[in-house]
Amino acid sequence: MTVARELDTQESICQDVIFPPGDLYSDEPPLETELHLEQIMLLLKCLKWLWRDRNDFYAAGNLTIYYSPRQLKSEYFRGPDFFVVLGTQRKTRKSWVVWEEDGKYPNFILEILSQSTANTDKDLKKQIYQDTFRTPDYFWFDPFTQEFAGFHLVDGEYQPLQMNEQGHLWSHQLGLHLGIYDGLLRFFTADGQLVPTPEETAERLAAKLRELNIDPDTV
Questions:
Q1: Taking a C-beta distance cutoff of 8 angstroms, is the pair 111, 125 a contact?
Q2: Where is the Putative restriction endonuclease domain (predicted)?
Q3: What DSSP element (H or E) covers 26?
């Protein structure tokens, strides 16, 4: 075989081989719409602000969870739109690798529906989160149609959550309600109070100061 022919043969083989990923940051594709990104960032911001004094949780959005029994990143991975793990160290991670995290899976998962992902989120992913992840709380929300549902794991199977009078669903794991506010999903306290962003907290404080005839810009 000539050198040129041998190189052509090797190139052809390489084109057919799909090499497994190495130390990946995340396998997740870009988010479908700007609204999906806004929703994820809003939930992250509110939860981290509410739990700013806690160091026993990890929350992330659009990040890959690797859960291969053989500890291979090239197989068995999923990327929830938003998830929370409790009882773990609060630190920055490239991805969530179950076998490097004492076998921990998310306590809470939210999927943001779209036309291209809704069927998978409601069927395949729900089954995986129920049977493999054993994630206690699973929610989904469509920011365009406002479809909103939640499930809690009971005896190994997801049972649908019932909305309260305010249209909120209770997350047992987070100790918070979730509900739609101004077209996006927000957290609410047990007594129904909206969990604010840092900016909303500052605005409320400024309003109270003005009620006391104090200029917030001078404080």
A1: yes
A2: 22-180
A3: none
Q: Tell me, what CATH number does 125's domain have?
A: 3.90.1570.20
Please, is 102 exposed, middle or buried when counting C-beta atoms within 10 Å of its C-beta (0-12, 13-18, 19+)? exposed
Give the three-class secondary structure for 1: coil
Q: State the total domains in the chain.
A: 1
Burial 191-203 (b: 16+ CB within 10 A, else e): eeeebbbeeeeee
**Four-CA torsion 104, 109, 112, 115, nearest 10 degrees:** 80
Q: pLDDT per position in the chain (219 positions), as tens?
A: 443 443 343 334 334 433 344 444 555 555 668 899 999 999 999 999 999 999 999 999 999 999 999 999 999 999 999 999 999 999 999 999 999 999 999 999 999 999 999 999 999 999 999 999 999 999 999 999 999 999 999 999 999 999 999 999 999 999 999 999 999 999 999 999 999 999 999 988 887 777 777 777 776
Q: Is 187 helix (H, G, I), strand (E, B) or coil?
A: strand
Let me know if residue 9 belongs to a domain: no
Q: How far is C-alpha 108 from the chain's CA centre?
A: 8
Q: Is residue 13 part of a domain?
A: no
